[in-house]
Amino acid sequence: MKKTKVSKQQKIKKPNFFLYWLGIPIFRLLASILVRFKVEKDKKILKFGTPIVAIGSHTCMMDVAFMLLALSPVRLNIVCGRDVFTWKPVKPIQKAAGLLPINQFEMDLSSIRLMKKAINAGCSLALFPEGKISLDGRPLSNMNHKSIAKLLKFLDANVVFSHNYGGYSARPRWFHGFRRGKIIQKCKVLFTREELKELSVEEIVGRLQKEFTFNDAEFQQEHQLRYKSKTPAKGMNYILYKCPKCGAEYEMECDGNFLSCSACGNRVQYTEYGEFIPDEGSVSFDRLDKWYDYEKESVAKELDNPDFRLSYPVVWEQANSEYVYEEMGEGELFVDHKEIGFIGKDLQGNDVKIITPIAYLPTIVQKTQEAIDLTVNNVVNRFYFRDGKYSAKYNLIVEEAYRRQ
Predict the structure, then answer these.
(1) Using CA atoms, how far apart are residues 176 and 391, in angstroms rounded to an integer?
(2) Which fold has domain 309-403?
(3) What pTM was estimated for this model as a whole?
(4) Poorest-confidence range of 83-97, 232-246, 275-289?
(5) Residue 403: which H helix or E strand, with range?
(6) Is 205 helix (H, G, I), strand (E, B) or coil?
(7) What's the DSSP call for residue 249?
């Protein structure tokens, strides 16, 4: 692993005051227009002063904005994956916003040192320990609570926990756009600085596990919450790729309201209340997370085969030093019990291998454009599946294989 040192001369500053002064009202206006947003915040947080470490669940793309709104006027330096620096809207403001880069699902000692330096400089941090947006409205199953506990003790600051109820239902990972409905952002004191010093790692882990236990699909149904949309199921076949009736994979099609299997004709409606209603003669689970668990169980059975290996053709791209993706070559992206990696050729015809042991990879970054990111030596490699599918299944394979290590 390539280790980059944090320069002693490198200055870490709080996000620009004027950017916050302009951005927070815009976020607040958008939150009121796009969703019905409400904040519930422990008043003790305002008495802390700074620095604080705000850790949050990652159920939707709006989590960051919701956390910033809820904890304002505290200005938070957001710790985010290096891929975020490739986003066009982010590039012009990354320095003013005080963004701190971290490698997703790769040990990144330079980023840990950077976080500590920020805390020592009086900056407050926004951390999303799961490292990726939830696919099914639940926390990452392979989340390393022990590592998070050790990091919090090392950072040595007051800790706030932030979670929104309804964020996943309003803007799930697989949906483009917003489904207007109720969202409550709750912020509470999780640990004072003094508590962190006194508590053991195991005691901190216990409290983290309790907070990182949620199920947005269950929450929506239990409270009969409606999230308005003309196409509530749009994009759902990205995550629900396996037919519950015939078991065919990647034959699920979606017209915005119905999920249909092109292999057997199974047809299921998904409503604004998060319900699945099968047509007569069709089969369905009654909740999204249960359907996703069915896919997990199917992957687990496949991995019972000691010779399991999956491989599909991909196009390889890489983020350069300016955080711009460039096409590098093509080949096959494989996954088995022990490794996930790329075997192919670069644009000059040279053989290339990029392989990561699953023992160090609790999950992977997957894109709705049916691509997978692997960060190796601080470089983000992106692999687009030529068939325009498979990333959700690769993710499940990696998570289950990691669990078995």
Answers:
(1) 17
(2) PH-domain like (2.30.29)
(3) 0.89
(4) 83-97
(5) helix 391-403
(6) helix
(7) B
93, burial (CB in 10 Å: exposed 0-12, middle 13-18, buried 19+):
middle
Tokens representing residue 30 in the block: 């958008």
The candidate with the shortest Cα–Cα distance to 234, out of 295, 313, 173, is: 173
| Spatial contact of 340 and 366, defined as CB atoms under 8 Å apart | no
Closest CA to 12 of 137, 108, 115: 115
Residue type, 34: L
pLDDT at 105 over 70: no
| Domain parsing of the chain, residue ranges | 17-215, 236-303, 309-403
Question: Mean pLDDT across the stretch 273-279?
Answer: 97
Q: At 95, list the tokens.
A: 């320095």
Between CA 166 and CA 39 the distance in angstroms is: 12
Q: Which amino acid is at 403?
A: R
Indicate the pairing of strand 158-165 with strand 52-56: parallel
Q: Does residue 100 have a pLDDT over 60?
A: yes
CA 172 to chain centre: 11
Per-residue DSSP letter, 265: -
Q: Class for domain 17-215, per CATH?
A: alpha beta
Task: Please state, rounded to an integer, the average pLDDT across all residues of the chain.
Answer: 91
Q: Considering only CA atoms, give the Rg of the chain.
A: 21
The beta strands (E) that lie in 117-213 are given as 124-127, 158-165, 182-191
> What is the reported pLDDT for 106?
62
How far is it, in rounded angstroms, from Cα 298 to Cα 308?
13
Q: What is the mean pLDDT of residues 213-241?
A: 96
Q: Are 74 and 372 in contact (CB under 8 A)?
A: no
CA distance 162 to 1: 32
Please tell me if the domain spanning 17-215 has the same topology as the one spanning 309-403. Answer: no
According to DSSP, the β-strands at 258-261 and 267-270 are: antiparallel
Tokens of 404: 């078995």
